Amino acid sequence: MNACFKSDPLEMCMCRCKVMATSHMFTHKVESEGRPITNQKSSGRCWIFAALNVMRLPFIKQYNLEEFEFSQSYLFYMDKIERCNYFLNKMVECAKRGEEVEGRLVSFLLHDPIPDGGQWDMIINLVKRYGLMPKKCFPESYSAENSMRMNRILQSKLREYTRELRTVISKDGEESSVVSTLTRQMKEIYRIVSICLGIPPETFTWEYYDKSKAYHKIGPVTPLEFYNEYVKPVYNVEDKVCLVTDPRPNNAYGHAYTVDCLGNMVGGRPTIYNNQPVETLMNITSESIKNGEAVWFGCEVAKRFAGKLGIQDLEIHDYKSAFGVEVNLGLTKADRLLYGESLMTHAMAFTATTINVSIPAFPAWRLKADFNIVTLHLCLIYVLCLLYT
């Protein structure tokens, strides 16, 4: 009690011997992790940052660059507009199928109508429709780096629009009335997002020096042309699949699953999870890294994480010695998912691994977060999804 009086409980529980035993050296790693280090700042864009960090590695190699970033703000802009449209159309769909506002589904969706977070299939939707551009051609804005204020404005408008749409459907019911209401609402959404994030250019010209200091110029080109002609040949997002490890008894391995009302684009690719044992995910990830390709993934990072040291390990905190009870380990992963103790909270990229000969089932991993490097040991119990060709 005295030790915890002026100290962080997690810092107090730090296991010294585990810290000393942690090695940041790896037997297999991707050739380059990309420069500069990226930072999502006060936003929930980790899924965009992680995806673009994975995509830029073969792009940097192909064009012999010292450093490079794709514009995270560009995909964020497109996602905000598309996701608002997706949400409003889902509200129309829910109203037409008799879902009550006070019901669990609509209440849950209205709680956070426009979150920053996303899934791999959402990345595919955005890149296929809108392409990519260098960060220099569409840099960060305040609301991209600090999205809370913009999101609150959009949340308020989307809830207001939901009430308006439900009123139109209950009083009129004509499809033309619903469409005209949606069109007007989306014009207002476009204005809000454009003011906060800026309007991306329809075409751009990218000038750069390669490692040999030779000058190059690409453009004028549209973002979609840039992706199709210069990025897709070295990294095709459609060649990837999203795997998940969900051990809950009702979700059998070897099957594909989706989540109702989870998406970001009307008419776009649905969010699909291919459920496989965690051993399959680890094996595929290891093979990908051995072949020089980083792996996008999402996991739970709030548990057993020593942020200052960059270590995530099931044994990094010795709760038993401090409190006389174990924490986080009293439930299986299936139980944690069922009882709300665990969920995917952050997307990152695996860039290195070491297969432990003495414990082959538990390799160590190096992951690239959007602002630092973290080492994971024995913690893939929390891994939820990754992608691979």
UniProtKB/TrEMBL annotation:
InterPro entries: Papain-like_cys_pep_sf (IPR038765), Pept_cys_AS (IPR000169), Peptidase_C1B (IPR004134). This is Bleomycin hydrolase. It comes from Chionoecetes opilio. SUPFAM superfamilies: Cysteine proteinases. Keywords: Cytoplasm, Hydrolase, Protease, Thiol protease. It holds the Pfam family Peptidase_C1_2. Its main location: cytoplasm. GO terms for cellular component: cytoplasm.
